[in-house]
Amino acid sequence: MVKYANRMNLQNGSEIRDMLKVLSQPEVLSFAGGMPAKEMFPVEKMMEAAMKVMKENGADAMQYSSTEGFLELREQIADRMVKKQGVKTDADHILITPGSQMGLDFSAKIFLDKDDVVLLESPSYLGAINAFKTCEPRFIEIPTEEDGMIMSELEKILDKEKNIKFIYVIPDFQNPTGREWSLQKRKEFIDIINKYEVPVIEDNPYGELRFEGESMPTLKSFDTKGLVVYLGTFSKILAPGYRLAWVCASTEILEKYNLMEQAACLQSSTISQMETARYIRDNDLDAHVAEIIEVYRKRRNEMMAALDEYLPKECKFTRSRGGLFTWVVLPEYMDAKELQKKCLERKVAFVPGSGFYPNGNVKNTLRLNYSTTAKEDIHRGMKILGEEIKKMLK
Ligand code: PMP
């Protein structure tokens, strides 16, 4: 009889597995994923970068390398952090990780003992919830509204709860809601965390994918006390297959991430790092990101127009100004899982929102992704979604 650790009881991957099975059918129109559009991957240019790396430093590229990561890449990242995110930093404050998902896993292991408290937005990213769960914390969900977390609710919890180890937030075009925090909320949030001196994990895979409006300062850019741990990634601005992301944090905190990475996997892939650094050296990454934005903006526009046309007025949805997702709130009596079954019968897939609430109990929300779907398919899919919702109206 094989005996597993208790933490395995907390990992419930079955819904995702079921969904992946459905999505593997080619005729299914999927709004369920969260993937970048693969036609936007710079395959040719990456091939050139890879050739140069292999010709010039092939053996080094195939060798082990340092845990903190390839210096040229850390310098390029630090430079982007200064220019794009307004964060005063340098290569010494960047640690390369194999994906932000690993950064989330390290965050859990660094900060959480069993029953410690994690505060997070309600709803929040399912992958983070699962990563944190392995350390068996208690989740306290902070209510949110269209422009971010409700700060008075956050303060109430901070006043009341002991053992809060960190607050996990996605202020830019959040997964799952597509929402963006207002400037006001960002400033209030920083004042609050400075007062209570709680660490913050700011997860920002989507911030550069802005379709409209002024760019917003990151929480990290306001951080004067070294409380904010910033997670960035190449997954959505370049390609997720390289598995490259980074942590930007104070010297003290970054050292903990470094130790955790050593213990978990030694380092991120040397060859991925060298090829990516070479790509950035030889190409204009900003111009590439601008091209991605153009494509996603059109798809977002189609999605918004289709939702306006087909959803009944009883539903609300986010007019995402960036990122990959929008979020639909159904009438309270509706169950998105029921709706999901009906839609799947008609070959349309989405993710019911319930998994994004770590403590469960919200049934009437769903996430829609628009980054990988063609214009006509967006309309066809939303028409079916709208029809099925209308059938369930009371
Ligand atoms: N955080 C959020 C909010 C995400 O949406 C994702 C990817 N879907 C990740 C982290 C993980 O990204 P990576 O590919 O860098 O591991």
UniProtKB/TrEMBL annotation:
Gene Ontology biological-process annotations: alpha-amino acid metabolic process
Cofactor(s) for this UniProt protein: pyridoxal 5'-phosphate
E.C. numbers: 2.6.1.39
Domain Aminotransferase class I/classII large: 40-381
GO molecular function (one): pyridoxal phosphate binding
Subunit note: Homodimer.
Name listed for the protein in its UniProt record: 2-aminoadipate transaminase
Organism: Anaerotignum neopropionicum
Higher taxonomy: Bacteria, Bacillati, Bacillota, Clostridia, Lachnospirales
Gene label: lysN_7
